[in-house]
Amino acid sequence: MPRLARSEWYDLTRDMNWKLSYVTEEEAWPEDLSNSYGVPAERWWTWDEPYKITYSEYVHNQVNKDTGVYSVNSVVGRSKLFEQLDPGWKAAILAHYGAIAIPEYLASIAEARMGRFGRAAAWRNMATFGTLDETRHGQIQTYFPYGLLAKEPRADWAHKALHTNEWGAIAARHLFDDMFTANDAVSTAIQLTSTFETGFTNLQFLGMAADAMEVGDLEFSALISSIQTDEARHAQQGEPTIKVLVENGRADVAQKLVDHMFWRSWHVFALLTGLSMDYYTPLEHRSHSFKEFMNEWIIKQFMDQFRDFGLEKPWYWEEHFLPELDWYHHALHLGVWYWRPTVWWNPDGGVSAEERDWLEEKYPGWNDTFGKHWDVISDNVRRGKPELTLPETFPMVCNMCQIPVVTPAGYNAGHLASPAPFLLDYQGRRYSFCSEPCRWIFEQNPARFQGHLSIVDQFLAGKIQPPTMEGALAYMGLSPEEMGQDAVNYAWAFTTRPAAAVAS
To answer: Residues in domain YHS (predicted)?
Structure first.
């Protein structure tokens, strides 16, 4: 067999495009699965990925990654490291497994769609590697929590969550269906790989791996590091896709797709990562606040991308997105902790005296805004009345992001002009939204979203029986043993400030 240098055969094998003769372009690339947005086929052939790899190189790399990460899993599984982890950190990783493990597998469907319906051979080649990546990520993130079952039965929510009607699972499922399982190849490349992965998860995984190592969770750190290196490669499908659209006069398409998915990604990101960074991670191991992380990593990344691609900042950037950095995840944390029986992890209140000082330093005014709510909660706990901190009703959820509407908390904190949700009457039905951008996303394509029933819509439609809080929790798949409780049995409510701090 001839032995050619890599440079002599690589481009020929990765980028073999051809003109169709037996079928039409529309038959080979149906619009629902591969919208060209009017760009001629030959123009798509200029698609050029920045990271190139051969199949043998790919297999070699993946074998080495799996050997390392499964070795760590085997050693840690025989130790007491998980039992010794901070309860707040356990909440963070259980929330992560439930929300992310199965969607990683679903992402393999998106990659496979691009592997078949991508508009250029080089793109299809790269997406095939992405399909293998995401299959691996789904497998490894269901296998690792499986090994924890004897120590934490709720680790089975890694596999279970996306098959339930739990509100957080519905929010994740709604987002990921919109982003990749019900999306065409071009939109998926921009919304999944560029906006979500390059913009959020790739950087998030870097931070989570470092945080896991800091708190002593060697297994989760190795797992996330292994996944992140794959994400960094296949996430680069978005950049050449945007470049082709912009060079062929369709910057408007790329802009709209980015604007749509950045906002949706931001809200789920704030729910998962905002709470973990500012409330669940042990105080002594916090290197950044969530806002600092967003400014230093996420926002800088996007600003560089907007400049390099010739795109504009999303229309809601200044008026809605940047202000939410100061309050949105604090409001979500308050709500998730209050409605803790409705989640599969144990939320850590995370508002001890020292933690409140840290929150005040990172978010000036926190004690006078969100701290007031925690004052009341803490007082009820100290008076032996924790039942007063539990919910008796359902939260209103947004008809777009499916996350509870927290505008009253934002209003009380002085960040919104009104506590009321954003409403839209459309074809005889009233829809409620948590924000102006969520309403805008719905209005851009109402046929795509109007038929979905939120958990509250299902309750009002009589689908949840009995129509009580107990009936709703059962409908969400939560047994009494699985319902969330405070992670540290309210220890934060009984902390006092150090004497020196009180004297000052």
So the answer is: 420-451
